[in-house]
Every structure is written in C-alpha cells, then in structure tokens.
Write a structure and sequence with these properties.
32% helix, four-stranded antiparallel beta sheet, alpha+beta
Length: 287
C-alpha cells in the first residue's frame, strides 16, 4: 500500500519528527500561486521559509518556494518523505547546485551531512520515522532529486501571472573547506553576500525572514523598496556632488540645533542697516 499524507498525519510522533526536519502538514489558508492546468492545487504542507508542498493529480510532489522558484522534487509522496528523511537539507543542496549540476549537488550534500549541527537528533528522527512508517531508504536521494527537477514540467505562476523559475540555483561550493570551518551555518552564509533576489509583484502574503535577506514571492508590490543609504553624511541641498567614497564628510544635517550668529549680528549687510531689517541666521553649510 503506497504511503499517503493521511497515513503520515495519523501518527503524531511521525508528524512531530517531520516538523523537526522542516516539514509541517499545515497548509496555507489563502492561495498565493496557481499551477497551469490544475484548478485547485492540493497543498499538503509547508516549511519554515514559507514554501509550499503540493501533491499533484499525477502524485508527483511539487515544491513552491516563497522566493519565486518551483519544481517537482519527487515522483511520489513516499519518495518525498524518503528525500526529507535522508537529506533534510535538500533545499540547501539545490541552492548550491551550480545551476543544475549533479556533481555539485553531491558535493554539497556530502559537506552538509558531514557538518550537521544536531546530528544525533536528526539520526534519531530518521530511525523513528522509518520504523513507524516501514519506510525504506532511498538508493540515491540526491540523484532522484536532480532527475525530478530536471524533468519537471509543472508551470507555477504568481497571482499576477508571473511564472516561477527553476529550483536549481546558480551557486556552487567555491571553497572546499567552507563547511568544515564553521558548520552548516557558515556554509549557508556564503549565500547572503551574492544571492540577489527579485520581487514578485501582485502576491498577497508577507515576507518570511529565515536568516538571509530574502524576498517573499507572496508579498505585495513594492515590498522590497528601500530607503537610500550612504556611507557618509546625507546629500545636501547646497552641493551637487555625492560625498567622496575615500574622504569622509564632516558635514551635519540641513538644520543644526546650535549655530553661532555673532558674525552675522556684528557685521550685518549695509542694506540691512539702512532699512532696519533684522536678518535670520544663515543655514548654509560650508565644507
């Protein structure tokens, strides 16, 4: 008898263990994506980053990320559970897939497995899930993941019609000892400096922050608009040049709290003396 979501959710201990592996069987309340050719996609769960797990009519398992990526990750629900149990960091494997290179994925999986921060807890969860569900081990979970995504033909769209892109990310493991120096967190941290994300307008849900500066595909237009930041003082109305990147600026804000006016009062303009006009203090800054 094939494994189904109903069988898994009937076992509370298994559900709790899968939650520890970042799989929750609580679907989103409101739809934030569509799938071409499928009127009512069956979302069976989600992960901490806001991504959705969808069981397709073909029984393939589809993953829709909150960053505008989507693809089939397993041929069946049972194969999906096998993947999650064997490689709970499967999403990080895809981030470091080098644009869909199987060898890059295998290298990433090896490094991530070798540097698990909670190895004992994960191994205990693996053993209990397999025993409770009578679940066999996958022969090649990374290879199966690669083949499923490479053959994925599901077209997922944002609510404004924008198509989602592939789950294969372009990053690769640049430094062989990156994971060994700082564990999984250090390995994943290399993503933050070079992983630009794009906005997906027209979607209705708020961004989910998971340790990186990500853009949520479910957010509203303009959610990633940011205020300009400068390395020195802010731009001034009295100049036309941006402060030098090498020479720090010592100017202050446009309206200082305290300003000396003794020169202004001691040497007023001749026109002001003749007409008896009292001039306001200067507000222009001099550099």
């Amino acid at each position: 008898m094939p494994l189904t979501p109903e069988v898994v959710t009937a076992d509370r201990s298994v559900v709790a263990r899968l939650i520890s592996l970042d799989v929750s069987f609580v679907p989103d309340e409101e739809p934030w994506f569509t799938i071409d050719g499928i009127e009512n996609p069956r979302q069976i769960g989600s992960d901490r980053s806001g991504g959705a797990f969808v069981l397709l009519p073909s029984q393939n398992m589809l993953y829709v990320s909150s960053e505008g990526r989507a693809g089939i990750i397993a041929g069946t629900f049972e194969a999906f559970v096998q993947l999650v149990v064997a490689r709970p960091y499967w999403l990080n494997i895809l981030k470091f897939s080098g644009g869909g290179d199987l060898q890059e994925m295998r290298r990433a999986a090896e490094a991530l497995e070798a540097t698990l921060d909670d190895e004992d807890e994960i191994n205990e969860a693996r053993e209990e899930i397999r025993k409770s569900l009578d679940l066999g081990e996958a022969d090649d979970p990374v290879g199966a993941l690669y083949e499923a995504i490479a053959a994925s033909d599901a077209i997922v769209r944002a609510t404004d019609g924008s198509p989602f892109t592939t789950l294969f990310n372009r990053f690769s493991r640049q430094q062989p000892d990156a994971a060994q120096r700082g564990g999984v967190n250090a390995y994943n941290a290399s993503l933050s400096a070079e992983a630009p994300t794009s906005s997906w307008p027209g979607l209705s849900r708020p961004s989910t922050f998971n340790g990186h500066k990500n853009v949520d595909a479910r957010d509203k237009p303009g959610h990633n608009e940011q205020r300009p930041y400068f390395t020195h003082s802010p731009l001034r109305n009295t100049g036309t040049l941006v402060p030098s990147g090498k020479m720090p600026s010592i100017s202050v804000s446009a309206e200082p709290i305290i300003q000396s006016i003794w020169i202004r009062l001691w040497l007023p303009p001749c026109a002001a003396i003749c007409c008896g006009v009292s001039c306001a203090p200067l507000t222009k800054h001099f550099e």
